[in-house]
Amino acid sequence: MRYRNTWEDAVVGKMEKVADNVMQIQIIPAGDTAAFTVGSHLDIAVLINDLPEIRSYSLVGRYGPNKPYTIAVKRLPASRGGSKYMWGLKEGSKLRISQPTNHFELGFNTSNYLLIAGGIGITPILGMAEELIAKTDKNVRMLYLGRSAQEMPYIEALQKVLGQRLIVHFSDIDGFFDTSKILNLCDIETQVYLCGPIGLMNAVRKTWENGPFNNQNLRFETFGASGLFAPQAYTVKIPRFNREVQVNENQTLLSALLDAKIDVMYDCKKGECGLCQLDILDYSGDIDHRDFFFSEEEKGENKKMCACVSRVANGNITIDTAYRG
Amino acid sequence: MSTHTFTMNESFPMNAWYAVAWDVELKHKLLPRTICNKPLVLYRKKDGTPIALEDACWHRLLPLSKGSLRDDTVVCGYHGLEYNSDGRCSYMPSQETINPTACVRSYPVIQKYRFIWVWMGNPALADESKIPDMHWNDDPDWAGDGQMIKVHCNYRLVVDNLMDLTHETFVHSETIGDRNVAEAPFDVHYDEKTATVTRWMKDIQPPPFWKGQLNKVFDHDGTVDRWQIIKFEAPCTVNIDVGVAIANTGAQEGDRSKGVNGYVLNTITPSTNQTCLYFWAFSRNYNLKDQSNTTELKNGVAHIFSQDEDILEAQQKAINENPDREFYNLNIDAGAMWARRITDNMVAKEKKD
After folding, report:
1. Domain A234-320 in CATH: superfamily?
2. A225-264, pLDDT tens digit by residue?
3. What are the residue ranges of CATH 2.40.30.10 in chain A?
4. Which terminal residue of chain A, N or C, has fewer Cβ atoms less than 10 Å from its own Cβ?
5. pTM listed for this prediction
6. In the 8-state DSSP scheme, what is residue A241?
7. Backbone conformation region of residue B112, classed left if phi is above 0, alpha if psi is from -120 to 50, else beta
8. Angle formed by the axes of helices B155-163 and B334-352, to 10°?
9. In this complex, do A219 and B56 lie within 8 Å of one another by their Cβ atoms?
10. Which of B51, B72, B84, B101 to mutate to test the interface with A (most CBs of A within 10 A)?
11. Looking at beta carbons, which residues of chain B come within 8 Å of A128?
12. What is the pLDDT of residues B309-342, one digit of tens each?
């Protein structure tokens, strides 16, 4: 369910590095901290190139009265600008934040759970682990993947609550993770909660869809931030308008088109709804499909792409919009 | 607390089990009910499991109760989006994938004591042991039945009504009421979760209703000891232990063998701020195999409660028409006031936690 945001003032509390490139930020709202369920996120008004934008960050841990909101932000070298802004905050900095909203709610109507976090995808999963471990009638296992211990926050806290039920995979030591293994950790009752980079999400989804279990038992959240390639600048040609537009590495195709006054319909801006889809007429290099709207098959055809999140790597593109005037 | 909040206080806790339907009301069919200002759609899966989902499609908010049920799947009646019994979307028209956030909220739901109970607040806190004890409603040592009525008043007014039975004398004068109820003294006790009002009327002439009940078991024409032990459990359940025994046979001391005992079971679920779903039943521990006695009692109580309904709706209207006025509370309101305070504490604690 989608909720209308109500905005309030907040200030930044303690900022603390909890892993290489991960900053934990406490946010103290002007009013009371609102009760939230695990899996919730906050929308935060940020400035990117001095222009206002909104970014979503999962809340870390469980709600507690008089406890500030806590988020953790990974600094991405080629970010759309959100992480750079958040890292530039200081204790006492002023912010505008929304109420907590949950699009990734933990269900309690089963007894078996598998939590899967990849890298900074740990942020919504940590609270879920704490919540499930507090309930004696739930069996929970967790898989936490990342490059190395130095880059993965909260490992110790998780080991403390989960013990043997936590499996940690370091790709720099353990190598590639074979996602088919997750099926052995599940049965027909298991609900899987997944958050991580797109490569992991796609692999787990593919494994799950080809496995024996119900599709609805795999639940995941994405903010459309990661791709298979590092973001690069590229050029978009739109023959219908006889235009050529540059997309910078920290800009989305959608925002580049809108800035150039080329109208595109859109809504979710995180690659889920499909409203911003464009026709691909020609391209060079690779289309980095970062959305969750098109199926793998559709992505493979490279006939359409979601302008809000997807990009071009190592090349350029020619597109058409829906305008037929 | 400012006095103004008392009369108009319509608040309720979310972290509580609320009765939403009688067991027999819920079928393999979509049933809309508004609980705590939140529209829900209820149904039973094919295997009988009760389900409660948010009654608004994730897509364009049409009530799902306007749609249909196919096996255990709810199909929206507008664009055909489908939801499984966990509220997860399992079909979206004209696209190959399903939006990962597509779901409607599903609420913890349990069938117990012949009622379907739903937990409206944080699902992590939903614990079956927090369902108020209403076992008399399906205990083989007791027989009875009841109904649900939708009353156009805030649920707290119904709790007030049940916590002070002096009103029987005036609202229900021809059945259960008599002067003794209005004149006998009573005791009020409370703890963190409950408030109890106890009233014993010793050696009195039984009112017509109780004389009739006693005579089903005992051939007795004289005086009786009558009791009413009203127990409130926050936020909205009131179980009333009622009965009469042949006078001076030790009922108050604990020997009720020379008497007849009933439980008036009430749980009043907030629907909107000014409507409630009032579930009640009457269970008895005598004459158990006489089914006409069950029907007679159910019809009798239904008649009595329709008199209350009339009073309560008129009271709510009067409250709305006199927004500058506060209740004047009397000694007889002690039980109702403890009940309100316990509920207020529950609401305040929930805000704080």
Report:
1. Beta-grasp domain (3.10.20.30)
2. 688 898 999 999 999 999 999 999 989 999 999 999 999 9
3. 7-102
4. C
5. 0.88
6. G
7. beta
8. 140
9. no
10. B101
11. none
12. 999 999 999 999 998 888 888 888 999 999 999 9
Please report the ipTM that was assigned to this predicted complex: 0.82
Q: Say which CATH topology domain A7-102 has.
A: Elongation Factor Tu (Ef-tu); domain 3 (2.40.30)
Cα dist from A171 to A145, A149, A297, B196, whole Å = 7, 10, 28, 63
Instruction: Write the secondary structure of B272-296 as one string of H (helix), E (strand) and C (coil).
Output: ECCEEEEEEEEEECCCCCCHHHHHH
| Residue A232 neighbours by CB distance under 10 Å | 16
- Cβ pair A272:B101 closer than 8 A: yes
- The class (CATH top level) of A112-220 is alpha beta
Please compute the mean of the pLDDT values over residues A310-319 and round it to a whole number.
97
CB A230 within 8 A of CB A204: no
Q: How many CB atoms sit inside 10 A of residue A114's CB? A: 22
Instruction: Inspect the interface and report whether the beta carbons of B90 and A103 lie closer than 8 Å.
Output: no
The reply to whether A57 touches chain B by the CB within 8 Å rule is no
User: Alpha helices, DSSP H only, in chain B?
Assistant: 4-8, 155-163, 167-171, 179-183, 208-214, 291-321, 334-352
Residue A74 Cα distances to A29, A123, B37, B204, angstroms: 22, 10, 40, 79
CA–CA dist B29, B43 (Å, integer): 5
How far apart are the C-alpha atoms of A63 and A26, rounded to whole Å? 13
What single-letter DSSP state applies at residue B88? B
**B352/A contact by beta carbon, under 8 A:** yes
Q: What are the residue ranges of CATH 3.40.50.80 in chain A?
A: 112-220
Contact call for A274 and B95, based on CB within 8 A: yes
Token pair for A256: 């580049």
Domains and CATH numbers, chain B: 12-129 (2.102.10.10), 140-352 (3.90.380.10)
Cα–Cα distance for residue pair A279/A287, rounded to 1 Å: 12
Element (H, E) at A266: none
**B123–A272: do the CB atoms touch at under 8 Å?**
no
E-strand ranges in chain A read 7-19, 22-29, 40-48, 51-58, 69-74, 94-98, 101-102, 112-118, 139-146, 166-170, 191-195, 218-220, 234-238, 243-247, 277-283, 286-288, 304-306, 311-313, 317-320
B16: exposed, middle or buried (C-beta count within 10 Å: 0-12, 13-18, 19+)? buried
Here the tokens at position A259 are 């800035």
- On average, the pLDDT of chain B sits at 94
Separation in Å, CA B150 to CA B119, B171, B195, B256, B279: 20, 19, 25, 35, 9
Token readout for A72 is 């953790």
